[in-house]
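2024-03-11 09:14:02 INFO queue: dequeued item DUF6534 domain-containing protein, len=373
2024-03-11 09:14:02 INFO validating residues
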Amino acid sequence: MTSPASPLGEGLPADLDTTLAAAFFGFSAGAILFGIGIRQAYEYYTTTNKDSLGKKLIIGIACVLDTLHLAFSMNLVYNLVINMLGYTEAGMRLVWSLKALGSTQVVLIILVQGFYLSQIWRVSARANLLLEKWFSIAIQTFVVFIGVFALAVGVIFLTRLQTIDVVHSFDLGFEYIVYLGFGATAIIDCSIAGAMCLLLHKSSSGTIKVQGVLETLIQYFIGSGLLTSFASILCIILYVAQPNTLLYLGMELSVPRLYANSLLAIANGRQGLLNRLDESIDLHLPSGVFFVEPDRVSLVGAHLKDTYSPEREPKYPEHMVTDPFASPTSTRQRYIGIPLSDPFSPGSETKYSPTDSEGSKSLSRASSRSHTV
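2024-03-11 09:14:37 INFO prediction written
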């Protein structure tokens, strides 16, 4: 029994080897990235974090959309293979899979871009004390413009996507939509990365720990923005190079994974950055600590002894104690003067010298009197 002719019977890719290779490697790379995303999602939801319910919901929706995109990718590759083997009934299912794949991809990309834009808005609103008012207003205006632009491009792409009836060699009208969609995505990603980096740089407080955290965030946004932009541009290049094949699918099957993983990476890295801000600084001070009491002077330290004991020879100059914070390589000796007046003798102006025997006896009498009282 002969199968009925397929609407795509004359529209099969000319280079089957290139088409199958692109679909296979693209799906394999997407599956690997999906596994990485699942690991990150598990880490995010099982570790203790103080994120709001709204943020957790956004990340959960992104994971669901990423899973749906993988399922539609699997269905597309399956129908592509059996269609090439002669089962022309799979042709219509192939077109349906491409429509579902593209729709899921657009929604996921807009969701992630909207999340980043909302973060830019929040940072610009909270850092108004560190930013000039005109700069904060400019950033918020930029957020509104980019958000409306991304939403408009997404709606146009989704509307035109539902009108296709082939999976390659699109008509000229839809080719322009492909260029618009991927090109606008690259521009938006670069704009978001640039705005976030500029905002973080302007919001720096100057402290070492905060500066280190901000530099890490800047490097992350630059890397993620360039990566997703490069992937979108590469989709355009592959389609322009071979429009009669499905070579562009090699990148399109992996692009949404990059967005989902970037969102999960920044969510999981937040706690580590907060821990870096909470790190304490240890001050390594010398071991010699001085205590001055009414009737005695104590030097606490393993190498220090009581220099005011009558039976010991004094080590320090009169009324002076060596500064423990002085550099050992310093060419000049610094001292801290400590008056040893008896506070129990009202109006007494006598200062005791550790080298004066009378002073030592007076110091002993003052000590005995204080113990007697």
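2024-03-11 09:14:37 INFO annotate: The longest helix spans residues 90-126.
2024-03-11 09:14:38 INFO item closed
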